[in-house]
Design brief:
single chain; 519 residues; mainly beta; Methylamine Dehydrogenase, Chain H; Immunoglobulin-like; 4 domains; seven-stranded antiparallel sheet; 41 strands; globular
Length: 519
């Protein structure tokens, strides 16, 4: 990246008919090419000093060692300066929405990036006078895209005019390319060709066998998706090694609402066809693939026992849609996941803020929230690592009994659960890591942090693990993936609430949380 021609000293305009120079703007400092935006009869530039550390292979960046610059708006016809804003212009990327007369400024923290693309902030300005409309701290890992009144990026979506968060369930585990968008869809590289339906906002989907490149080379336009081949020089066995154009075809899978659940009681389920007047929905509750002879969906129904629901739409000529499925766990011992029954508690000094959410019976945390320290990266369970907790509010309920749950982490840092919790300085913590592979149970009492038991070996990424912890008086017994992991005796804490724990982990999920009291 350091060898790329990413900046210029001068921006100029030529007459398209004659080739003659119309006007030029000579930068006070430098013009990064990604900071040039054209629209609404204007050219907007970010005139900012060069980040000299970008030229070094080991270049490092912080918000403080790259000087800010100025946003400069020019009349695209004459080159006259319309306005200039020099108030904390930190960005490297700009984009114009002519429809909403708004300018977005951000970074471009893609997988292959210059060191100065540090990310973490995004702003919007009034295109008429350059005044700031809003600014916020936001974690994102791609070049933001303006789509009508929404800004989309890998990591979030925001209202262009207000900065308010918008729902965007996009998650990509791998992909070096940036997002490309049309009105209703995002396309991107996710090892193969991935796409995301903005009208449904449900999940990423894939069209296998194609290798998109590491930049914008999959283009949605004119009702087609154009995918040039980028497998040249790649040793991977991609089946399609030619340029391909894709068109809309087939029947879409029905929607399941809710799309899964873990509940102590029956759950009401509704199914929705994409084109109700043309399609009929068939379903099964035993995990079998629905056929034309499977039960016909007519109205919402109750799922009263644990089941794997699978649904499929059929057209009049019998053409089937893809199968949609959802898992429903019905167990009286399950803890309710209603948001009003839980609360978030970030440790003092933890950064960035945690991002806990609950959907379809799954608790998820996606921020890299953590408290650092001189020893936290050591491969030992003896070091205390404060992070963020998602706590059940009823602090008097949990004494003796059996707590069980499942966890799955895409990241490799700390996850776990706090038990008999009565405060940040009074609880037990069971935790596990992948990067520093261990599982441990520790007791926290005031300044005391003591490991009661530890084992070598952590969790496997992107795999569901089962955890069971049994409390009986002073005896605590733990099981991991069905095998007994430890048994200790400690009487420090007799009761308290429970909560899930995340430290430096930007992708952990918990589900099937049950607690069964014992006499």
């Amino acid at each position: 990246m350091k060898d790329q021609l990413t900046e210029s000293r001068t921006f100029f305009a030529l007459d398209a008919r004659t080739g003659e120079l119309k006007w030029r703007y000579d930068a006070t400092h430098s013009l990064r090419h990604n900071g040039i935006a054209i629209g609404a009869g204007m050219v907007v530039l970010i005139d900012r000093p060069i980040a000299t550390f970008d030229r070094r292979r080991d270049g490092k960046a912080t918000a403080d060692n790259h000087a800010t610059g100025a946003l400069v708006a020019l009349n695209s016809g004459t080159g006259d300066v319309l306005w200039r804003n020099e108030n904390d212009i930190y960005g490297t990327v700009s984009a114009i929405s002519s429809k909403h007369h708004t300018l977005m400024m951000s970074y471009q923290p893609t997988r292959f990036r210059l060191a100065s693309e540090i990310g973490g902030r995004i702003s919007a300005f009034n295109l008429s006078d350059g005044q700031l409309l809003w600014e916020k701290k936001a974690r994102y890992d791609s070049r933001p895209v303006i789509n009508d009144r929404t800004i989309y990026a890998q990591g979030g979506a925001w209202d262009l005019m207000t900065g308010e968060d918008r729902p965007f369930n996009f998650k990509r585990s791998y992909g070096c390319g940036v997002l490309a968008g049309s009105r209703d869809m995002m396309v991107f590289r996710s090892a193969t060709l991935g796409y995301f339906d903005l009208t449904r906002n449900e999940k990423n989907e894939d069209f296998g066998g194609i290798r998109p490149g590491c930049w914008i080379n999959v283009i949605p336009a004119g009702g087609l998706v154009f995918a040039p081949d980028a497998s040249a020089g790649c040793k991977c066995s991609y089946l399609n090694q030619s340029w391909i154009a894709l068109q809309t075809d087939g029947t879409r899978a029905p929607r399941i609402e809710p799309a899964g659940s873990a509940s102590p009681g029956p759950v009401r389920v509704a199914l929705k066809a994409d084109q109700p007047h043309r399609e009929k929905i068939r379903y099964t509750l035993d995990g079998a693939t629905p056929s034309t002879s499977s039960p016909l969906y007519e109205k919402p129904f109750l799922v009263g026992r644990s089941a794997t629901l699978r649904v499929r739409a059929f057209t009049a000529n019998g053409r089937p849609s893809p199968v949609a499925d959802a898992e429903f766990v019905i167990d009286p011992g399950l803890l309710p996941l209603n948001r009003e029954l839980w609360r978030v508690e970030d440790a003092e000094g933890a950064n960035p803020p945690s991002e806990w959410s609950v959907a379809n019976g799954i608790i998820e945390q996606v921020s890299n929230v953590m408290v650092g320290g001189p020893r936290v990266m050591e491969n030992t369970p003896e070091v205390e690592r404060p992070g963020s907790l998602y706590l059940f509010k009823d602090g008097t309920r949990f004494g003796d009994g059996e707590l069980s749950f499942e966890l799955n982490s895409a990241d490799d840092d700390g996850v776990g659960v706090v038990l008999r919790y009565s405060g940040a300085d009074n609880h037990y913590l069971w935790s596990t890591h992948n990067q520093r592979p261990f599982r441990s149970l520790a007791v926290k009492q005031g300044e005391r942090y003591e490991v009661l038991d530890s084992k070598a070996g952590g969790f496997q990424r992107r795999q569901w693990h089962t955890v069971k912890l049994v409390f009986k008086g002073a005896r605590i017994t733990g099981y991991f993936d069905g095998a007994k992991d430890f048994e200790v005796t400690d009487s420090t804490h007799a009761s308290g609430t429970i909560g899930f724990y995340s430290w430096g982990n930007s992708g952990v999920k918990f589900r099937k949380v049950t607690f069964r009291s014992s006499p």
